[in-house]
Structure formats: C-alpha cells, structure tokens
Design brief:
This protein is 7% helix and 43% strand. It starts with a strand and ends in a 21-residue tail after the last strand. The model has no long low-confidence stretch (mean pLDDT 83). The chain has one helix and six strands; from the N terminus they run ββαββββ. It is mostly beta strands. The protein has a four-stranded antiparallel β-sheet with strand order 2-1-6-5. A two-stranded antiparallel ribbon has the order 3-4. It has one helix at residues 27-32; strands at 2-14, 21-25, 35-37, 40-42, 46-49, 60-70. It has one domain (2-70).
C-alpha cells in the first residue's frame, strides 16, 4: 500500500456562513518548499478538513505531500477459533 509522507505547514478555520477556509502558515515553511518553474517561484500545498476541530476551533489542516512511501499490506486479523464444545453422551 502506498502512503504519502506529509509535512504539516499550518492550520485553518472555515469562515462562518461562507465557503472559505482561512489558513495561517509560517513564511519560513513555505519558502522551504518553494520551487522554480520557468523562472517563477511557486508553492504547492493541500488543505484538508480535519475529523473534528482542535482545541482552538480550527477545522482544516494544511500540508505538503513530500514523497510516496510503500507500506507493507497488513493482513486482516483472523478471529481465534473457539474450541469445540464437548458433548456428554450417555449410553
């Protein structure tokens, strides 16, 4: 299974009654992932909604996907077999 190694850059909060998320990132973090394309500098990152808000009410997280890592596939856990019940037979 492939997973992405993520470098978290900041967090954000959905603006009430709008479809806008305000995210705050440190400038040093953004500069460290900047790249040049045909003479212009760019920064690419992703914003994802968190499962539940954090202690500050932030609802979204911002991260940079660095690289793909191969993770070994975990086999599903097999339930332990119950021992067969002994049946008493009288003759």
């Amino acid at each position: 299974m492939k997973t992405f190694k993520k470098t978290y850059l900041g967090k954000g909060k959905k603006i009430q009654n709008l479809r806008i998320v305000k995210v705050t990132c440190r400038l040093e973090d953004l500069q460290s992932i900047a790249y040049d394309f045909e003479g212009t500098n760019y920064v690419t990152f992703e914003i994802a909604q968190m499962m539940k808000p954090d202690g500050f009410g932030r609802t979204h997280t911002c991260y940079y996907r660095q690289e793909v890592e191969d993770q070994p596939e975990l086999s599903p856990a097999k339930p332990a077999k119950k021992p067969a019940k002994e049946i008493a037979v009288t003759v």
